[in-house]
Each structure stands twice: as structure tokens, then as C-alpha cells.
Amino acid sequence: MIINLEAQNKDNPGYPLVSRALYYCSRLVAKQKNAADGFRHSEFENIKKVYSIWICIQHSDYKNDVVNTYAIHESCHMKPWNAPKEQYDLMTAIMVYPGKQYDHKKEHTDEHLHSLLELLNILFIAKLPVKDMKEQLQKYDIIMTKEIESEVQNMCNLSDGIEERGIMKGLQQGMAQGKAEEKIDSTLLYVKNLMLAAGVNAEKAMDMLGVEADIRPVILDALKCS
Fold first, then answer.
1. Range of 54's domain?
2. pTM of the model
3. Is residue 140 domain-resident?
4. Is the dihedral of CA 75, 80, 81, 84 positive or negative?
5. Which of 100, 121, 137 is the last residue of a domain?
6. Are 72 and 29 in contact, with CB atoms under 8 Å apart?
7. Does the residue 77 lie in any domain?
8. Number of domains in the chain
9. Digit-coded pLDDT (tens) for 160-188
10. What distance in Å separates the CA atoms of residue 26 and residue 16, rounded to the nearest whole number?
């Protein structure tokens, strides 16, 4: 058995995530041939089943608490006959969408209400302080050894770091966009002034000023509108 675990930040990254998960499964099956821990030549009976588990962190609310599996199934369309399941049941993609909000402080009388989905929420979504996260993990009978406590601290630090980097990246992109717009505005002014002073057209003025090729269409469009 081969288990592939993926954490996906967005469930709609511009392509079908389920298709990508099945593609990963196919690759992991194909890579087994002639691998050190795989099968040789035509020994296809030795293919190990692949599970690809995708934990989707940011997703639409209607997917809260959804867990879907995608696998190969046999269908008999004429005379019934069944191949041994192990011959075709070789890959399963599992898409997991933890809920975004749970009442972590509520005392549940049913231990089953402390579900896997709630645990994933605690680990990846809730952004709990380290102390609160440790308390919640203990409800799942997770013994807080020094090693696990250190990992929890690292996860919290990583989450904070990712969020800070995201904010910083947004600021940097905004600043870069502002500088680009400022550059276009100033270049447009220079081109206009040179056209009036030298009596040349826009193309000639941009040639004389050495305006970069990538912003010339923007300058021309702005001149048409002015």
C-alpha cells in the first residue's frame, strides 16, 4: 500500500482538483514498475494499491464536512462475471474538506463527535494559540510529548509566518503596481511635452525618449483617450 498525503490551500486553483488527485494516483501506480520497492517486468499482480488523500484548507462553505472518495469499480453490462477486486482496485483519491468552524470549547458527551474533520480544523484552519491547541489535541487522547509539543509550536509559527508572508506579498505587489502606474503617468507626460515642443508624433517621441517596448501600447492608448 502507498499513501500520498497532500494539503491543498485552494480547492479551485484553476483546474479540477479531483482530476489532479487521480493523475497523482496514476503516476504513483506507474512509478512502481522496475522501482527498487516496486514490481518487475510483467508482475502486475504485485502492484501496490495507492491512496492519495487531499486535505483542502480553503474551500467554499458548501463543501464543509465533505469527504468524497474516487475509485475504480467493476460494472457487468452483459453476462455477469467478476474479476478479483484486487486486480482493479488499485487507486483511490480521497478529498477531505474540514468544516471551517466548530465549537471546540463545547463538552461533547459523545466521543465520536470529536471527529477527524474537527481535528483537521484544529490543526490547519482554526489558528488556535498553542495553549488552546494543546488542550484540544488532548481530547483526542494525543499524548503531548515534548516532541509533539515542539511540532505544534512549529505548526503555529509556520501558520503565522505564511499569513505574514501573504500580507507582505500583497503589500509588495501593491507597491510594485503603484510604481508601474506612476512610471506610466510620468512617461506619458514626457511624451506629450516632447510631441508639442518638437512637433513629432507619438512614436518618434517615444523613440527619442527611449521608452520601453512593453509600455508603449499603454502610452498610445492613453494618448488616444486624452
1. 1-100
2. 0.60
3. no
4. positive
5. 100
6. no
7. yes
8. 2
9. 545 555 555 555 565 556 566 777 788 88
10. 16
